[in-house]
Amino acid sequence: MQHLATEQFEAWLGNAEVIEKDGHGVKVLRLADGSFLKLFRYKRLLSKNRLISPAKRFSRNAALLQERNIPCPQVISTYRLSKPDRSLVHYNPLAGETIRHLLRQPDTSVGDLLEATGAFIAELHNAGVYFRSLHLGNIIYTPNHRFGLIDIADLNCQKSPLSDWQRRRNLRHLLRYDEDWKPLSRDNLKRLAAGYEAGAKKPLMLSEMARFNLLGSGER
Question: What is the helix (H) or strand (E) element at residue 192, kind and residue range?
């Protein structure tokens, strides 16, 4: 991780587009060359983030996903900034649209897209990828018709496929976003489940949907 001088950061900031910010300041910038700069705030003085910063985790996770042939942002470098106190990752973004965005487009074949999305999530779990920030806004459909991940700082990879318990827990992360699932028909939700269960060879998705009352009480 390199030290980033305040002057260099301010020069970037002066020519950048602010993509995301909150009450603590800028979070994501699009730089003049089209690359992105993501800033991570240290939330506590004594924190595991001081040992392994979110920027380093982002970079490490990108490498682990690439080993598994899963598309993701391409990291250029990581930095430490003193004022403000941040870790930063500089990366080229993953081209494509989020599944959340595509599902809201009138020309999208919703059932087909959801079934393919379910199969991709099964692929992640089979490859040992546990993505804590799993939701439809962090899954990208790329121009070459592949699925990939963004916002990957909060992710773990293990050598073996996820256990049933890990899969269920991760699916609960996915299904808790009511704004994604409530507008969808029951048949389309079943396509998502069919894609996952075919890929995972485990009947997990429908049972988790029933827990969230997405398919009606206890429906299988």
Answer: helix 186-200
The label of the residue with tokens 């959801």 reads 114
For 166-205, the pLDDT digits (tens) are 999 999 999 999 999 999 999 999 999 999 999 999 889 9
Give 190's DSSP letter. Answer: H
Q: Going edge to edge, which strands form the sheet with 86-92?
A: 2-4, 74-81, 86-92, 36-41, 25-30, 17-22
CA distances from 25 to 20, 40, 123 (A): 9, 10, 36
Q: How confident is the model over 6-52, as pLDDT tens digits? A: 888 888 888 899 999 888 788 999 999 999 999 998 765 544 544 67
The answer to whether 70 and 121 are in contact (CB under 8 A) is: no
Cβ 40 vs Cβ 48: under 8 Å:
no
Are the CB atoms for 170 and 134 separated by under 8 Å? yes
Per-residue pLDDT, 216: 64
- Residue 173's contacts (CB-CB under 8 Å, 6 or more residues apart) are 131, 132, 133, 134, 135
User: Are the C-beta atoms of 68 and 129 separated by less than 8 Å?
Assistant: yes
Q: CA–CA separation, 21 vs 104, rounded Å?
A: 24
